[in-house]
# Entry
Amino acid sequence: GTCVGLEQCTCLRDFYGQHCDVYNPCVLSPCEQECVVGTNNYTCLCKKGHILAANGISCIRCAHSNKPSWHVALCNVADDDTFCSGTVISDQWVVTSAGCVCKSGAGIDTQTISIRLGKNRTCAHTDSDEMQLSAEEIYCYPGYSPGKLTIDIAVIKLQHPIPINTIKQSQPLCIDNVKKGKNLFFSGHDVEIFGWGAVGETVKRDDILQSNGHVVVDMTLQCREVFQRENVQYQGDGGIMCTIANTTSSCIGNYG
# Structure
């Protein structure tokens, strides 16, 4: 700092104390919730139940509820076909099925898809609260190939972050932190599935967003037996998550 009198100093930014010998950039940091001092800078963190926004400063409350505010439709620009669904997990990232957006190990042309938040009906219909988002990049899980049932996952980076006021209302889905090697879902876990899937033998896709209610995860031999009965190869323990229910299921018609 600068000496301005006897035992009086004017400190440089981020330095404090009588002799400007205390470094603490968090004092004037713009972090919304928590700040951690680094070697030459600071890092913003968020409390449990929140995620850090793309600006590295703001915190967004994430949703644990079954209200599908985080649900997006993946629409074909050419014909407005609702070819898949996706889940908002932050203000700049959407997770979906690799089978939706990946070919030959690489993401499809981002110019061919439109991502729409706040959809209650399929892409061919306009909802009053919907927001159209553009994709910047698609990242496919390494090693994924079409038709493979495991590692069928991809993430889409949005061209621009969803506006803070909008994302705080829509709330991305909370992705719980889990230790490496520990399953987030386990047998007996209660889950809910959303989408525009088939609602009957003759109705291939419903125009209104559907939920199959609560179903139970099954990672046991019962799951393996179902795959074998349908002549589908069960590819590794834990690689596929099954759900079981008496009257409903995650049926065909809408992946992601």
